[in-house]
Fold these 4 entries.
Entry 1:
Amino acid sequence: MDEDLEQRMRALAADLAAHRFGETDPRLRAALAEAVTALGRLTDVLGTTPATPGGLHAAAPLDVVVPVLGVDGCSAGWVGALLEPGAPRPRVVVAPTIAELVAMVRESTGIHVVGIDIPIGLPDATIRQADVLARRALPGKAASVFSTLTRAAYAAPNRLEADAVNRGLVGQGVGAQAFALRDRIREVDAWLRSRPTVTVLEIHPEVSFAAMTGEPILAGKKTDQGQSARLEALAAAGIARPSALRGQGYAADDVLDACAVAWSAARHAAGLARPLPDPPEVFSDGIHAAIWA
């Protein structure tokens, strides 16, 4: 594909994305959203980005067309990486709850997409395809994706009861990591049910890093080697080193994960992101269940 044509297509997708959210006619909003997605997919398919030895394609550097927020859990609650058009680097923000974090950012910035590293859309009596496909997309790193429990299991008061409920519904027990996130998952689920007026996506950082580089980053995210590799991946994808890597209540791996989530959120705003699965599943909660990258 001609590089000038590719650049014009990307610019058109960015321009459409920058203007689609303010439209009031729902039919026009839907048409614009479909056009942005189709144009982004055509650009990716026809683009000249080189393939990695594994056959996957590393993503081209991303232009941030609208403000987006990537969020990851941390000991202080939630840490966010805010990307804005023209800003030199992500801005790091922290709050004890997801509702407070998003509200704080929206006081000064009109964010269009919030990406969160947490399961969104809880199954009733099945295994989520989002988790299955994310593990498949991460050879050598599949263990970083745990199976989301059923909604009834997360409602159980302790892990023992959750284990019994989940085994009865899907035949799988409840791991310590899966249940440890119970309170965060229920917090985000309750916040989503309050119908925040912003697009909210589930994004897994390791899936995002794999989409950036064309293959999973195998080095652990808490190691110096792993953090250097993630900073390099972000820089190559157009995301500069964040304003802070660590602070009161959050660590460097939390911030880097939030930046990766923000990258995928920005890709969604530009019509370039893909859901796993496509289309997303929908359970009885009515919430789309998919991991975006």
Entry 2:
Amino acid sequence: MAIPPSWIVQTGRSIWTSIWQLMMSQLAPPNDRGEYQRPQSEFRQRIEGRYAPAAHRYRLYVGWSCPWAHRTLVVRALKGLENAIDVTILQGDANAGGWVLPASEHGCHTLAELYRFGQPGYTGRSTVPMLWDNQTYSIVNNESAEIIELLNSEFNEYAEHPELDLAPIALQDSIAHWNEIIYQTVNNGVYRCGFAQTQVAYDRAYAELFATLDRINDLLSTQAYLCGDVLTLADIRLFTTLIRFDLVYHHLFKCNRSRIRDYTHIQAYLYQIYHLPGIAATCNFQTILQDYYGNLFPLNPGGIIPQLPDLSYLLDVDCI
């Protein structure tokens, strides 16, 4: 069969490019170089003052597929806060324009409606994770990096593992150092690749991402975790991106130089964290695959959901 006439190809490409640029400007607003710029979180309260620590006072709103929300589930599991911090799992729905609640709450059916219920007149982004106060019906915090700090330190009297400190004072400089590197080049780096709107922006993000992964792989040849032999919040922040890498970022976000299973030491590191008590239960691989490929229409307009890739390196110790 002959390909369509050139004028049809050119017209189709022009129309699709215009539509793609419009959708991407809303999904992933770029700077003037076509680089994805992640907006800042807007709710940044701490557990202090009007917000006192208490069991069942606070609720986390999360989505299985979101790596930023996943951080909070991991820390909640490690600290043993399942019986103190309640959780609502949302469903990503592109047709609804965001996250949908599993059941109506306060007359709200979507996370956007709940944000407006907690903050009347709110017009910003309605993102997960979100820490909600059931007592004042208000949003405490929607910055994942801060929520995991709160879960680590502010609810120890209700935790099953209060002795576990994921941010020990002696390691805080090292944690902060790695957090800065990981956020820019890995956590947000994969999105900078996938949401790049120019070749230059993509090439830069791609180079920085794999330079950091190479560096981390070398580091992990001599120590168990990023900051030595102790698991910290820096590892949690890295883990939730790495666990999605071979699933979605390698192909859908064009981060295709290497897979995690190609890194001997990162692979073992990921296996070790995944098999800590409670962590595997926070990883819903099928939903991650479904949400990324099903909801990010500009990156996958055909809507085809691929099969799960080979994850045996996570599940079978003989693969390490």
Entry 3:
Amino acid sequence: MSKFIWLPGIRDLRLDLFRGLSLLWIFLDHIPELYINNFTPRNFGFSDAAEILVFLSGLASGRVYGGVASHSGLGVALARVLRRAVEIYLAQIVTVALLLGEVALFAIRQPSLLDHANLAVFFASPFETVSQALMLRYSPVNLDPLLLMVILHFALVVILPAMMLWPAPTLIASLLLYSASHWLDWSVSAYPSGVIFFNPLNWQLLYVMGIWWGMRPANSPPRILNSQVLAGAAVVYLLLSFFITLSWRFHALEAYVPTVIANWIYPIEKGDLDLLRLFHFLSLALLCWRLLPGDLPVLSTRLLRPLLQCGEYSLAIYCISVLLSFAAHAILSMGWDNVALQVLVIAGGIATLVAAASLLASVDRTARVHPRTL
């Protein structure tokens, strides 16, 4: 079993910071009318906030449940894993129900919103749709990431013991599953048609990599991560990704992307976690790890507390953001879309998320002892 030093009550504030940031970026990205969407991470590289959220969820799971297993036994850790998986599952189902009610109200004036939210099928076959939602084969708009996290957390019941006993072989097995899923085009079917957008057979790799990293002793990172050559390669790759991403918006730049490269890299699929997206995220993660130490004083300031609290209660904040972003989309699509209203929507949405996180923090004073993992 790999050595693990667990310090109860100690949080890595970098995790909460980047989870909080990713939740705000996802909230903004889910409102297609916003001009500020042009400045979220998805516009500057191949990966986006989804990769951040999944990896950090795995990393936090590795630290928390790996620590519990080392301190209190694997049985206690697995019981907590199951409890958390059920919490996320119930959050998915409750949010589906709330979103259904919200969309139904807006659809009185905008019937097209039912199709946009992938909820028209619910009114056509309500009982079948409910059963499929309970079996995790159906998800309305913007809830696909949460559906993925439900699946991955239930899978953690198997992944955690394997990672405790055989960390390297488990990571290799995850990589082999990712490779086989790409080569053989494996997917998980969805209701009423198609496949689950965030293919869990592929996205599990990012989650498992996070678990593997989270269960490593904090003071002994792999030596290769200190390589200047690797850091330089990451910078070069990020710059190339940035240039190619810019060419999607500024078509004059497309002429500078060689045809042979364009034919090789496209399409860069998000749902299947394309290899280019994976490399892009790992490059970002490497540079952030090198440049942002965990004891940076600014992480403990009042200025960042709202973001940290959003990251700490990321499950509730994500569910609330889905409801807020759809309401914002419905309002802006009514023809009231202007700069003033966009600013009001952004400010009101972020203020609501921050207030919700602050309320949860004030109620749940034990959160610092039992950190959240999603």
Entry 4:
Amino acid sequence: MINERRAFEPVKSAPGVLVHPVRDRRLAAEHWLLSTARDPSGARREWRQQRIALLPLGTLFSAVRLPQRLVLAVTGGTGPSDEIDAFLDEALGGGPVICDPRGHRYYALVPASMPTTWHQAADDWRVMEVDCLGRGTFLGVPRVDLVTFDQNTFASYWSVPMPSMATLCAPLAVARLIAAGRYQLEEQAAECESG
């Protein structure tokens, strides 16, 4: 997978010395994500036992829930895949995205303020089943090392891994992706009606 390969490349800092910043970045991202939980040790236990932890939104980050059909309309894909993950990585500038294959949804992690600052757009997006999730909402967040789609379990995973703590999707990039998906879905509906 493109994301995973890039994430595991060691960096040479000096002759003969290899530094693995990915491990450090993942650990920092893990601590940052867990800092949102009332009981970080309980959330860490959920990650160990269930591979996913429910974390509250609206403090450090929020999420935009994207229906899989909208993402597939833009990418031309048929379901979770390395190609869709790579597309989202590029389209969202490396911002983190969680894929929930069972629920047929993607979650773009965005700044905590997005549900309030983009509330008018968010109201318009609801007709496409897109929602800005913030305060009062919990999100099932997979462990930071779960970065590939498992066809056997259909477990949630990081479609685009969090590159480092506090690195989020730019709201404008998410809005552009939604607009592109809406356009493609409307084109598909028009073709069905005329065909």
